[in-house]
Amino acid sequence: MEAQAYRGTCLKSVAAHYDVVLISGAAPTREKKFLLDYEVADPADQAALTAAGRALAERHPLAGVMTWTEWYLVPVARLARWLGLPTTAPEALKSCRNKHTSRSLFARHGVPSATSVSVRTEHEAAAAARRIGFPVVLKPAAHAASMGVIRVDTAEELSAAYAFAAQTAGHGVESTQVLVEEYLDGPEVSVECVTHHGQITVVAVTRKTVGIPPHFEELAHLVDANDPLLATVAPAAVAAIDALGVTDGVSHVEIRVVNGRPRLIEVNARIAGDMISHLVHLATGVDLARAAADIACGRTPDLTPTRHQAAAIRFIYPAYSGTLTARRDTEPTGGVERVRFQRQAGDQLVLPQDGGDLFTSRIGYLITTGPTATIAQARAQEAYRNLDIQVAADLQTIPVTREHAA
After folding, report:
1. Is 105 within a domain?
2. Residue 36 within any structural domain of the chain
3. Any idea what the Cα angle at residue 64 is, between residues 279 and 59, rounded to 5°?
4. Most buried of 290, 313, 336, 357 (most Cβ within 10 A)?
5. Whole-number Å distance between alpha carbons of 275 and 9
6. What are phi and psi of 38, to 5 degrees?
7. Tens of pLDDT along 115-159?
8. Domain containing 124: what range?
9. Within 10 A of 395 (CB to CB), how many other CB atoms are there?
């Protein structure tokens, strides 16, 4: 459900230009219309993935291998190397996946980043937080989607925060450690980049709205083809990709702008989630999914902008945890590109502060476009107001105002 909701546009784009064969942990359903063939195997299991790749290679002349799933980056790169197909080195992708390794490489290459300490126990975390100074951020060294990431403002909050981060970190493959990091106080953006044979092209900057503290839930994104901030953050994104040794593929580089200067959060060596690639396509005309497929097949991607507008996405969250009882889109307003619900009436919604994450709390999203960022955002706000969302609160939770999810 989640993959179809947020990655359907990527698969549709790739399938429009290539015959697609898929390796997936379950038999495809709605994706099947885009596929020539498939194999069922766990992509995180290297042996199973390689066997599935071998089976597909016996039936089809494979031209490239790609993934847009964070957890599969390293196994898929190893599969591509085994098949003799283009890929960034698996070792470089392991460095992207392990945020502690990334921080070390950023420091070695002079890329501005956050002070970071890798810890294994709560005692070590407390000592690191005292050295860095509150507030700090605790996060798993190898995870994704802001899961297990939490801000800690005081020493009294650290014990519960460490338990929260460590629980998620324990499921990591490249590392099970927790990082204690300097809190970067400033607007958060991501830079969408394409690298081919080591040459990096910066395509767009995404401005993010992050909330539901002390967590870092992403509530909205905005891509403006004419965003002046791109010139400020592009050099840092390029330096970070170079530092990690990423040579081929699409990268989603997360940055905070502190006192007007970019500071690196992390490099995700894959297409951005949360429909950001679709926003980039709407705003600039550049198709990042096709670019990733082209690079995987050894072809030079076309990154020529053909549009110069803005596109915004607003995620739909409940004001409090509970049961979704109704959800309805009212009359669409101007500039609404789509409204999608991923939860049905009767579904339980659990916000991060109640032990949930984006997979348990999001009801859906809406996307708007406009000639400028201001207009695209205003249209998103208006469309959001027109939604009819009803949630029955759990007895354990205390309802708050709707602005909590704004």
Report:
1. no
2. yes
3. 125
4. 313
5. 8
6. -160, 165
7. 999 999 999 999 999 999 999 999 998 766 677 899 999 999 999
8. 115-182
9. 7
